[in-house]
Amino acid sequence: MNRQRVAGATAAPRFEAEALAIAAIGPIDFTLAAGDCLGLAAPSGAGKTRLLRAMADLDAHAGSCRLDGHPAEVFSAPDWRRRVMFLPAESAWWFDTPRPHIRPDRLAARLAALDLDTRLLDQPIERISSGQRQRLALIRLLSYNPDVLLLDEPTANLDGPNIERVEALIDEYRQQNDACCIWVGHDRGQLERVATQHLVLDAAGKPTDTPCS
Ligand SMILES: Nc1ncnc2c1ncn2[C@@H]1O[C@H](COP(=O)(O)OP(=O)(O)OP(=O)(O)O)[C@@H](O)[C@H]1O
């Protein structure tokens, strides 16, 4: 599924982190080229979500992130967060139904790709299942055309066929948009399928070479 690079080819950095740390979590460093996906694994409570929030500049942190060579500081906060977009494990919704949250471009195709009925767009949020909400939140995120997807356990509520659909949609988006992603997950098999690079943290949030159990 992953895009293969030509051996010996060097790709320009698209999204980078240098000495990124929040509280005692990290520091971490990585460099991703267009189309790359970093699989981020760690025991529960190690700090994966907090690092994603630091990358999106949602919480105060140490170290820096760069997009296409430009540090986060040169972007306005809303512009950075639109380009480097965080998908929380549990989605938040502020209108009564999904439709007003989602830009219409490619909406029908993405709903079909994730096996979602268009009528869900006009259903009250509380009547939509957690797995349906998770897929709708991904479609909402993609509708804003981010350059970097910060995905916090994006298939946690899904069954096997829907996990495959989500993996395929994200892979297609990365390839068509030269986007990068950071994929937080606990399923090592999945991370091996979707990621082009891997970062494993120990229970204290420090990078390690030891595989996460
Ligand atoms: N805003 C915050 N301020 C201080 N500590 C926090 C904050 N948010 C979370 N924590 C704590 O930081 C630690 C890391 O939390 P985080 O949610 O990043 O873990 P995680 O690796 O994503 O866990 P899981 O795999 O269970 O989702 C936890 O001990 C959590 O209680």
TrEMBL record:
InterPro entries: AAA+_ATPase, ABC_transporter-like_ATP-bd, ABC_transporter-like_CS, P-loop_NTPase. Keywords: ATP-binding, Nucleotide-binding. This is ABC transporter. It comes from Salinisphaera dokdonensis CL-ES53. It comes from the Bacteria. The keyword Nucleotide-binding applies. Pfam families: ABC_tran. Residues 1-213 form the ABC transporter domain. CDD domains: ABC_ATPase.
